[in-house]
Design a protein that fits this description.
By secondary structure, the protein is mainly beta. The chain has one domain: Lipocalin (Beta Barrel). The protein has two helices and eight strands, in the order αβββαβββββ. It has helices at residues 2-12, 61-69, and strands at 32-35, 41-48, 51-59, 79-88, 91-98, 103-111, 116-124, 127-136. The longest helix has 11 residues, at 2-12. The chain is globular and about 40 Å long. InterPro entries: DUF2147.
């Protein structure tokens, strides 16, 4: 279970300060590339219709292999962060696909300055929660 929580949390933290938009989402301050704490996955934040999403643009060989073993044949190009929308100042919520377990969960983000974000996710309600801080690299 702990392994799944870590994988889930890794998927949660790729969004930064995403401003609300009236007609279409703009990645705004979140635009760019973010790395997870272990620097094994890089995600590009971008507009996806009326929300903001994060697509994997790089992953090390081990992360790619773990994703394949769990049923995600191609990690690079996978949309991990889906339908993220601003819920308050510096806070967002959306859905996160965790390729190492092949499931999608609800998650939330909070900006920690311009170049760091903390993502939090829970497998069951407000229980079995995990959080991580990711860093902007581009």
């Amino acid at each position: 279970m702990r392994k799944h929580l870590v994988a889930f949390a890794a998927g949660l933290a790729a969004v930064s300060s995403i401003p609300a938009a009236a007609d279409a989402a703009s990645p705004g301050q979140a635009a760019g590339v973010w790395r997870n704490p272990k620097n094994t996955v890089h995600v590009r934040m971008q507009s996806c219709g009326e929300s903001v999403c994060g697509v994997v643009i790089w992953a090390d060989a081990r992360a790619q292999q773990k994703a394949r073993e769990a049923g995600t044949p191609r990690l690079i190009g996978t949309n991990l962060f889906r339908e993220f929308r601003q819920t308050g100042p510096g806070e967002w919520s959306g859905r996160v696909f965790v390729p190492t377990i092949g499931k999608t969960f609800s998650g939330s983000m909070k900006a920690e300055g311009r170049n760091a974000i903390t993502g939090k996710g829970c497998l069951i309600g407000r229980f079995l929660c995990k959080q991580q801080t990711w860093v902007r690299i581009g």
